[in-house]
Amino acid sequence: PGAPDAEPEFVIREYVRAASQALSELAPLQTFYAEGREVTIDRIDLQARDLAAWRFCSVCAHAEPEAQAAQYTACPKCMSPMWIDVGCRAETVELRSVVAASSEQKAAIRDLDGRTTRLYDRCLYPAYSSEDIGCAYAIETPTSLGPFGFEFVSQCEFRDLNFGPRAPGRMGRTVAGEQRPSRPFDICRECGKLQISRNLQDGDHQASCAASRGRQPRTQWLAQVYLMRRFKTEAMRIIVPTAGRANNDDNKSFVAAIELGLKGLFAGKVDHIHPAVIEERLESGARVRNLYL
């Protein structure tokens, strides 16, 4: 052991995860396991460009950066007047890098069977215009199970959102017609440090943070954020033919049938095609479930 006043030695280890995995596996409060160590992620390595204000429609899946959304008095897609409500505005972080700091002694895994994984509230939302639709087909007369049709989207942007750790009840904002069963992440907008205690007025910060030691009021440095990643790809939108409310088993059966057909068509694996069932509101006000591939 060194002298009592000796500076601690820091060992930096870097790990990489695919963006789709990182949104949960490297989210704040998650316990990360690697090389015989377990650490809890408690800080987002935040850059100014990573933090942005967005407006999410409470009725449909439409969302826009606040700088563009402010020009509209109603949702550009569904014309909901709730678009301008303060509850539709939220800050997001494009997750690029996170930090977990712990002593070597505390990080050592002692119970190999006691690993825990925190669950998060995630959802995927599509965004595209009518000009992006290459071809489409629909049955003119709806079947007994409801409407059916499909369309090919040549360029679709998907917003993959982590709304925060799952909660026992629905307590979050309403997005796309559904109140989220989670609370957003509380972080310092200056240093990215996760704020676990809501009663600590000065907060928990990095030593070099501009908001540490009460130098800024809590209302100035506290940010309640969602984690988000965006990507563009081709997509196929298929209306799930169900009458009334469909449960998860109905959705899974329909997705399994589509995947089985694709395997037969391509005569092999279709692991590169990722399905997502998303409920959306039509201009008429009706809600339909769509399968995006």
Overall description:
- With 293 residues, the chain is mainly beta.
- The strands form four sheets. Strands 4, 5, 6, 8, 9, 10, 13, 14, 15 and 16 form a ten-stranded mixed β-sheet that branches. Strands 1-2 form a two-stranded antiparallel sheet.
- β4 and β5 form a beta hairpin.
- The N and C termini lie far apart (58 Å).
What is the topology?
Elements: H1 19-25, E1 31-34, E2 37-40, E3 43-44, E4 51-56, E5 63-65, H2 66-69, E6 89-94, E7 98-99, H3 104-107, E8 120-127, E9 133-138, E10 149-165, E11 174-175, E12 178-179, E13 185-188, H4 218-221, E14 222-239, H5 248-266, E15 276-281, E16 287-292
Oligomer: single chain
Strand content: 25-35%
User: Percent of residues in helical segments?
Assistant: 10-25%
From the alpha carbons, calculate the radius of gyration and give it in angstroms: 22 Å
Order of helices and strands: HEEEEEHEEHEEEEEEHEHEE
User: Which whole number gives the mean pLDDT?
Assistant: 83
Shape: globular
**Unreliable spans:** none
Instruction: Give the biggest beta sheet.
Output: 10 strands, mixed
- How many H/I helical runs? 5
Characterize this entry briefly:
The chain has 293 residues and is mostly beta strands. Helix content is 13%, strand content 33%. The mean pLDDT is 83.
Which characteristics define this entry?
293 residues; mainly beta; two-stranded antiparallel ribbon; 13% helix; globular
